[in-house]
Amino acid sequence: MASASVYAFSFLQFIFLILLATLSAVLPATSEKGFSIEEATVDDLQLAFKRNHLSSRKLVEFYLKRIQSLNPVLRGVLEVNPDALNQADKADEERKTKPQGPFSALHGIPILLKDSIATKDKLNTTAGSYALLGSVVPRDAGVVTRLRKAGAIILGKATLSEWSHYRSNNAPSGWNARGGQGKNPYTGNDPCGSSSGSAISVATNMVTVSLGTETDGSILCPSDSNSVVGIKPTVGLTSRAGVVPISPRQDTVGPICRTVSDAAHVLETIAGIDINDKVTIEASKYVPKGGYAQFLRKDGLRGKRLGVVRSFFDFGNDTFLQETFKLHMRTLRKSYAILVDNLEIDNINEINSDQSEDIAMEIEFKLALNAYLKDLVASPVRSLADVIAFNKKHSKVEKIDEYGQDLMVEAQKTSGIGKQLNGALLNMTRLCKNGFEKLMRRNKLDAVVTPFSSFSSILAIGGYPGVLVPAGYEKGAPFGICFGGLKGSEPKLIEIAYSFEQATMIRKPPSLFA
C-alpha cells in the first residue's frame, strides 16, 4: 500500500520542491484570450475551441513549454512528438472548415502514451529500454489507430518502469534506463506502478490525458499515488495489439486522467474490436451502445450495492486514514448507495499466498515478448535472450544495468506452454470463482470499494475492471479509493466513481502548481 505511506521530507526532497517552485513560477497558465488551461477538462477544452478562446496549436505549445520546464526534474515524459504541432494545425483547420463538426470528444486534444504502446511515426517505442531504441514497429498499436481516427494529437511518449516493471525486482517504480527516475510531484518520492510517467504528466498538467497499461497495479497504483483518475478496463475491452507485453492473460490498456469524465471519454475512444487482438472480439459484448460518457451521472451511486471487505481497511494506528475513510463511507450512504459491510473473501488467505500469478507471468512473458519482437520490422533485439545479452553487454559502458535483470533471467529459463502453466491458470480460475466472483454474486454487489490500489491483484488475476479516484492527502502524500467489479461492469463503475468524485471534489494539483 505505497500510497498510504507518510513521506518524511529529506534535504534532497526539499531541494526538489524548491526547483519545482522556481520552475512553476515562470509557467503561463492561460491562453491569449484568458482561458485557463491548467486543470481544464476535455469538455472545457472543447468548449474553448468552439468559442475561439483556444486553438489546438496554442494548447500543444502550452504543454511543450511546460514539459520543457518541468520534465528535467519530474521525468514524466520520455519523448515529445516532432509532428505534434502539425497535428494540432490539422485539427484547427478541420474545425475551421467544419465549424459544426461532428467531432469526437478527443478531437484536437493532446494525449501522452506510455512508451510500451507502439506508434508508426517519428516516435520510438522502447518500453524505456535502450535495447529497443531504433526499433521499427509494423503499425500503430490498435488503441493508437482509434485515437488518430478520433482526431487526438499524439503529444509524445510517457516514461515508465522499464519493461513495465518486468526487468528486475530491484528497480524502483518509475525508473527506466532511457529516462531515469520519475518523481511523484507531490512528494518527490516513488510515483508507483509502471505507468508512472502517464500519471506524473497529467497530475502536473504537462498533458490533457494519457494512456497507461496494467498487468497488476500499473494503472491503479500510479493513479493512487499521484492524485489522478485511472481506469483499468476488463481485459480485452481495449486492444493490446502493438503493446510491449507481459501477460496477454492480464495486460490491459486504459486511461489515466485528472477527472472521471476525461477518463470516460478516452475509454469510449479506445474500446472495441481490433482484428489484431482476438480477445477484443469476445470482450466487445461489454462495450455499451452510445459509449461511456452517458454514464457520467451525478446520482450514479443511487441504489448501487457496494461491498466493503474489512480486511482491506486495516490502517493500524493511523487515525487520519481511519477517519477519512469513515467520512467517505458516510458520503457513499448520503448519495444513496447501499453499503454491504463487514464482508470477507472466503479464500483471501489462499489468494494472498498463492504463487500461480508469478508462475504464469514468467512463462507468458517470454512467449509474448518473443512474439512481439519477431513482429518488428527492424530491431536490435529479436528475443528475450537477445534483450538479456544486450543489457549485459552494455551495462558497464552505458551504465544501464544498475538494477540487474533478475525477472528477465528467470523468465528466460521457462520452457513454454505445459503442465506448469496450465496448472497455474486453472488454479487462478478456481481462486477467482471461489473468491471475488462468489463474493459479488452472493451479496448481489454492483462493486467492491477498497482503499488505495490494494485490490489490484484480485482484479488482475481475473481480468476484472477497476476505477481509482482521488480520496485524500496524508501530509501531502495522495491516496485514492478504488471501485472494482466483474467483467464488463465499466458502466456501473463509471457511474459510481463519477458520483463519488462529484460529491467530494478532492483532487487538487501539486501545491506548487495550484
Automatic annotation (TrEMBL):
<dbReference type="InterPro" id="IPR036928">
    <property type="entry name" value="AS_sf"/>
</dbReference>
<keyword id="KW-0732">Signal</keyword>
<dbReference type="Pfam" id="PF01425">
    <property type="entry name" value="Amidase"/>
</dbReference>
<feature type="domain" description="Amidase">
    <location>
        <begin position="59"/>
        <end position="453"/>
    </location>
</feature>
<feature type="region of interest" description="Disordered">
    <location>
        <begin position="172"/>
        <end position="192"/>
    </location>
</feature>
<feature type="signal peptide">
    <location>
        <begin position="1"/>
        <end position="28"/>
    </location>
</feature>
<dbReference type="InterPro" id="IPR023631">
    <property type="entry name" value="Amidase_dom"/>
</dbReference>
<protein>
    <recommendedName>
        <fullName>Amidase domain-containing protein</fullName>
    </recommendedName>
</protein>
